[in-house]
Specification:
The protein is α/β, with parallel strands linked by helices and about 400 residues long. The protein has helices at about 5-15, 25-40, 55-65, 75-85, 100-105, 110-115, 120-130, 170-180, 195, 205-240, 255, 270, and strands at about 20-25, 45-50, 70-75, 90, 115-120, 140-145, 150, 155-160, 185-190, 245, 265, 290-300, 305, 325, 330-335, 345, 360-365, 375-380, 385-390. Helices cover about 30% and strands about 25% of the residues.
């Protein structure tokens, strides 16, 4: 029996009393992935990206482990909710225009001490000031650095379209604007190198593309390491007691941790290990989060139909954004239909061994987005479900 077949047998036995659709997290795999992230971080603390987990119980579990400290959140409303729930160090990774949220933040000393907001433009400070009303609490601020690699005099750009702050001088200018403005305190710098951390460099069947990605990433790492160090020097000249410099992502943990200028690493997807992280040479993890759909039809030889399953991930549309049939091994989509809103035909010889009501296990393309489809996660240890816990959605929290 292969390791994957053994996992399927465990998951089927653990959830035999449960009807699909359902989602689970294998805690042994989750913990092993967490340990591997810590190993790769080489002693630098890891800030957990909440958007890749979206379950308070699992956020608490990973933050109880040595090597993890703090949360990187994705909306201001989520940040405030987490802070009110007892999380004491929440870094909002994206600028916000949530005026009501800023008013709440500025009026509450506990929230203002726990939450740091992201800024890359003085206009965002104006919005916060206009929204704060009578709230007089000092707002903690982090500046985001654009990590993109610019070639050919800037005519070619590789990287996500995020912050407009690219050079040390640009970041330092905004740092001065924050430091001169009452009601704000600059405490950190963040730089997410998505073109390094979030792009696989070993795509099956595409050796030339994979080599090109590796060459691009090597060049981008060198350029960013030098520029990030210069940015940190420039900002520390303005704010000497800067608290943190955050960088990285699941796919670049060990490379980013090697930079002296970086004080902490961000990661989250590496806990669940969705399918987009199968194509990396820098690490390998164990799939920890899966969802099951029930077989509801057997249209013919080598074909079964499961209920639903059409849960595409965000990003540029393409086959890599689709969930993948995982267990039993050997199933694939009908190319004429793909994964459907209400039903999904699957073809392949394993279909003939599946009965009505059996479970087919899938992996989502991305990590936390799976939790937007399910109210709860069944936590599996060995061959048992040892707990069932709510996702953000299960707690009535759909932040974005």
């Amino acid at each position: 029996m292969t390791a994957r077949a053994a996992d399927r047998a465990r998951y089927d036995r653990a959830t035999a009393h449960l009807d699909a659709p359902l989602a689970l997290v294998d805690l042994e795999a989750f913990d092993a992935n967490a340990d591997d992230l810590v190993r790769r971080a080489g002693g630098k603390p890891i800030r957990v990206a909440s958007k890749s987990v979206r379950c308070r119980t699992l956020l608490e579990r990973v933050l109880s482990k040595d090597g993890f400290a703090g949360i990187m959140s994705f909306t201001l409303a989520e940040s405030l909710w987490l802070a009110r729930s007892g999380f004491e160090d929440v870094l909002l990774a994206y600028p916000s225009a949530d005026r009501a949220g800023f008013a709440e933040l500025a009026a509450d000393a506990k929230l203002a001490a726990a939450v740091t907001v992201m800024v890359d433009d003085v206009a965002q400070l104006d919005l916060i000031d206009a929204a704060r009303g009578e709230g007089a609490e000092v707002i903690r601020v982090c500046l985001e650095l654009d990590t993109s690699l610019k070639l050919l005099g800037g005519r070619l750009r590789v990287g996500a379209l995020r912050s407009p702050l690219h050079s040390p001088a640009q970041v330092a200018d905004v740092a001065r604007a924050v430091s001169r403005r009452s009601g704000f305190e600059l405490v950190g710098i963040m730089a997410y190198e998505g073109h390094i951390a979030g792009v696989g460099d070993a795509v099956a069947g595409r050796p030339f593309r994979s080599r090109a990605v590796r060459l691009m990433q090597a060049a981008a790492r060198r350029e960013l390491a030098e520029r990030r160090a210069a940015v940190v020097r420039a900002v520390r000249a303005v704010v000497p007691d800067l608290e943190f410099v955050n960088g990285g992502g699941t796919g670049s943990v060990q490379h980013t941790a090697a930079e002296d200028a970086v004080t902490e690493i961000a990661a989250g997807s590496g806990l669940y290990v969705p399918r987009l992280f199968d194509n990396y040479t820098s690490f390998s993890g164990r799939p920890a989060a899966l969802f099951a759909q029930p077989v509801v039809r057997r249209p013919g030889v080598g074909i079964v139909t499961v209920l639903g399953g059409g849960y595409p991930a965000s990003g540029a549309a393409g086959p890599d954004r689709l969930p993948v049939p995982y267990l039993p091994e050997g199933l694939r989509y009908d190319p004429q239909e793909g994964p459907g809103e209400v039903q999904t035909p699957l073809i392949g010889s394993p279909a003939d061994d599946l009965l009505i009501g059996d479970k087919v296990w899938f992996r989502h393309a991305k990590a936390g987005e799976l939790c937007e489809r399910f109210d709860e996660l069944h936590l599996v240890e060995g061959e048992s479900v040892t707990a069932t816990v709510p996702t953000y959605r299960g707690e009535g929290r759909t932040f974005l």
